[in-house]
Amino acid sequence: MNTYTIRPLVLCQYLGETSAMTYMTGMGKPIFRPFVMWYIKVAEKNVLIDTSMEAEDFKNYHSFYRHLHIEHIQTFEEALEKVGCAPNDIDIVIQTHLHMDHVYNTSKCNDATIYVQRAELEFALNPHPIFEVLYPTDLIRKLNFEIIEGDQTILPGISVELVPGHSPGCQAVIVETAKGKAVITGFCSIMGNFDISPDVKKTVSPMATYPAIAAGIHTDLFQAYDSAVRIKEMGAMIIPAHDPDMAFMNQIP
User: Which helix (H) or strand (E) holds 30?
Assistant: First the structure.
């Protein structure tokens, strides 16, 4: 069996609000939100899951972000250098979805095959007005995608599963590791979406008694909840997309 190590690479972070991750839970509670991509070495191939976004790009993207203190951690190129490669060395990019903080550096990977779900690309090219700001449509139009539909194996030991709700075509990435399956959720989440703390269970949040909490940002709440439950029921090591503890680990596992 092929097994891999996952390397989280954080480009920036800012102090956000918890309920953007956990629907109707943790409202007003601050939490650092890291913007991460995930590197996997597969034999001779270099694989990235998402490509994140740099602090300076956030500030230039929309005036909203100029009012936040976004901590620069490293550039895209500096992050890749830590795993021994450059943008042109990336062979595969798996886009969990196409929000700007997941796709912003993909165009730098000139030689990569870029996997995306059809439902996600279709929505990204013509987003509903309320989600328009999250999709850098001009950037997305310039990318050449390998379009997939539904659950699929990308490489031996690396597969994707459709987990809609946060966005119409969000996909989780399942990776075989030396300690069993790990799942990168793709959708905005922290460990609190799946491991509901005793403090939360004591609150009046109606979400506290459920097996998992939906993503706070979603195009379809019912799908977002079902996808969170689906991931929890996999019994895999869960790697939430924006969890501050998991993001700064040197490697997983």
Answer: strand 30-42
Distances 217 to 18, 22, 144, 246 between C-alpha atoms, Å: 11, 8, 27, 20
Percentage helix, strand, coil for the chain under 3-state DSSP, each rounded to 5: 30, 30, 40
CA-nearest of 29, 25, 38 to 242 is: 38
Structure tokens at 190: 């922290």
- Residue 159 tokens read as 């597969």
Amino acid at 154: I
Q: What is the pLDDT of residues 182-204, one digit of tens each?
A: 999 999 999 999 998 776 666 65
Beta bridge partners of 158: 155, 175
**pTM for this predicted structure:** 0.96
**Residue 72: enclosing H or E segment and its boundaries?**
strand 70-72
pLDDT (tens digit per residue) in 75-127: 999 999 999 999 999 999 999 999 999 999 999 999 999 999 999 999 999 99
Residues 6+ apart with CB under 8 A from 5: 40, 41, 177, 178, 251, 252, 253
Is 80 exceeded by the pLDDT of residue 29? Answer: yes
Residue 1 resides in a domain: no
What letter does residue 22 receive in the DSSP assignment? Answer: B
Q: Is residue 211 part of a domain?
A: yes
The CATH number of the domain holding residue 180 is: 3.60.15.10
